[in-house]
């Protein structure tokens, strides 16, 4: 077991690597950050990978995805259909207990889709707030993602405040 502050730093680095891989559209790097059966010492020749250390993911508005293949397919789809994405993480909190770590944060996401007209570099940028929980597991090769859960934040706008006011 390593020192608690070192564990927190390593988990923070793994969490940052996850978001950087998404921003860069680096599917190979992203795949390497997710837990595999071999990370758990499971021999895949004799065990179904789906039965051991099942990874899971919930993207905002999506049903729960389970199993490494299903989770990674979802990220491949997101990367293929998003021309630009950037995450600004706030309210990040890391908690480590033994070989499990939980990271909670707010993802301040700026993204853009395909250009609406030929010659345009990028479609309109859209901002979104998502609260996320990332669960990591310690493996011989470092901390790996076990689960990601993102939920949209339904923030009030100034217009909502005006509508709630009752005239005197």
Structural notes for this entry:
This protein is of the alpha+beta class and about 170 residues long. Helices cover about 30% and strands about 35% of the residues. The protein is built from four helices and six strands; from the N terminus they run H-H-E-E-H-E-E-E-E-H. A six-stranded mixed β-sheet has the order 2-1-6-5-4-3. A hairpin with a 2-residue loop joins strand 3 (about 85-95) and strand 4.
Strands in their spatial order, largest beta sheet: 2-1-6-5-4-3
Overall pLDDT: 86
Number of helices in the DSSP assignment: 4
Inertia-based shape: globular
Number of strands: 6
Order of helices and strands: HHEEHEEEEH
**What share of residues are in beta strands?**
25-35%
Task: Label the structural class.
Answer: alpha+beta
What is the helical fraction, as a range of percent?
Answer: 25-40%
The rounded Rg comes to 19 Å
Name the poorly predicted regions: none
C-alpha termini separation: 64 Å
Q: What composes the largest sheet?
A: 6 strands, mixed
């Amino acid at each position: 077991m390593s020192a608690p502050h070192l564990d927190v730093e390593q988990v923070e680095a793994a969490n940052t690597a996850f978001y950087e891989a998404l921003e860069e559209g680096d599917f190979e790097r992203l795949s390497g950050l997710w837990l595999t059966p071999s990370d758990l010492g499971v021999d895949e020749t004799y065990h179904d990978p789906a039965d051991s250390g099942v990874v899971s993911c919930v993207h905002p508005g999506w049903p729960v995805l389970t199993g490494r293949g299903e989770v990674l397919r979802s990220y491949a789809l997101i990367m293929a259909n998003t021309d630009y994405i950037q995450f600004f993480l706030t309210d990040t909190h890391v908690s480590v207990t033994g070989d499990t770590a939980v990271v909670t944060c707010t993802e301040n996401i700026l993204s853009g889709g395909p250009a609406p007209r030929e010659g345009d570099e990028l479609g309109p940028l859209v901002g979104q707030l998502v609260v996320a929980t990332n669960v990591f597991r310690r493996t011989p090769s470092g901390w790996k993602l076990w689960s990601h859960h993102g939920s949209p934040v339904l923030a009030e706008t100034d217009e909502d405040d005006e509508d709630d006011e009752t005239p005197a």
